[in-house]
C-alpha cells in the first residue's frame, strides 16, 4: 500500500483524469468474503457491564440527531435541538449529542436553539439526496447553509459521474465544495447502496480524502441498503491507510438503518479494532440517525435503574 499512497504520489494523482483513474484502480482490491466475515466476527464481540455503560455514553455523544423530511418545521427542528442538548432531561449526567443535522433552510432555527451548547449544526447540501444539479447550484446550496451558521456540511457525490468513471469531475466538485465550506467541516456522502461493490467504496473513500474531506459518510438514509458493518469496515480501513500514508486523520460516519444500541456498540468495537482508540471520539466518528438515540437512552436507563422506562418515556424524533 505504501508504494501507492505516499504523500508525494498523492499530490500527483489529480493532475489528469487518467492519472486519477490509474491510482484509484491501482488500489488493492477488497476481499468481499473476507470483509463480510471480519465484520460479522467483530459483531459478535461481547463487552462487560461497566464497558457497556461507557459505550452507551460514547455512542450518545456521537449521534448526529437528524431530521430530513419535507414536512420539517422550525418548531420540530428546535425541539430536536433541545433533545440533542438534553437527551435525558431527568439525568444531567447524560451526554449531549454531537450535532443536529437538517436541511439548509432549517440551519438558523437549529442554531438559535443550540446557542453556545457545543452541539454542532450540520446541514445537508449539494442537491441532497440525489446530487443531481449543476456545480453552481451545489455551491450556492453550500453557501446558504454556511451563511446561516452551519458548522458542518454533509455533501453528496454525483454517483452517476463516479460510476461512469468520471473521477476527476467528482474530485473537482469535492474540492470546490470544500472551499465553499470555509471553516465548516465537510462530510462527503457516497450513498454506498448505489456504489455496487466494495472496491468502489474503497475508491470513493480515497477520492474524497484526497479532495479534502474531513469525514466520509456512508449514506443519505434515503436509499437501501444504507450503512452496513462491512461497508463501514472498508471505509475504516481506507481511513487507516490514508493516515499511515499522509499523517492526516479523517472521520467516518455510518448513516441510515442503525436503530439499536446493540448495533451501535458493534460499530464502536469495529472502530477500536480497525483504526484504534484515537478515532473513538465525536471528532472522528459519528452516527447519522433519527431513532437510534431513544434506544441508547432506554438501554442506559436499564443499566442505571435495572428496568426499562419504555419507548414512550423519551420524546419521539
Throw out a few tags for this protein:
single chain; 317 residues; alpha/beta; TIM Barrel; eight-stranded parallel sheet; 14 helices; 8 strands
Structural summary, described in words:
It is a single chain. The protein has 317 residues and is α/β, with parallel strands linked by helices. Helix content is 49%, strand content 10%. It has 14 helices and eight strands. The protein has helices spanning 2-5, 7-10, 17-26, 32-42, 49-61, 74-85, 107-114, 135-147, 159-163, 167-181, 198-211, 229-246, 261-274, 292-305, and strands at residues 63-66, 99-102, 120-125, 152-156, 185-189, 215-217, 251-253, 287-289. The chain has an eight-stranded parallel beta sheet. Helix 6 (74-85) runs parallel beside helix 7 (107-114). The longest helix has 18 residues, at 229-246.
Tell me briefly what this model is.
The chain is built from 14 helices and 8 strands. β3, α8 and β4 form a beta-alpha-beta unit.
- What is the 3D form? globular
Query: Could you tell me how far the N terminus lies from the C terminus, measured between alpha carbons in angstroms?
Result: 43 Å
Task: Report the uncertain regions.
Answer: none
Structural class: alpha/beta
User: How large a portion of the residues is in β-strands, by DSSP E?
Assistant: 5-15%
Largest sheet: 8 strands, parallel
Q: What is the CATH C-level name?
A: Alpha Beta
Number of domains: 1
- Named CATH architecture: Alpha-Beta Barrel
**Oligomer classification:** single chain
- Strand order, biggest sheet? 7-6-5-4-3-2-1-8
State the share of residues found in helices, binned by percent.
40-55%
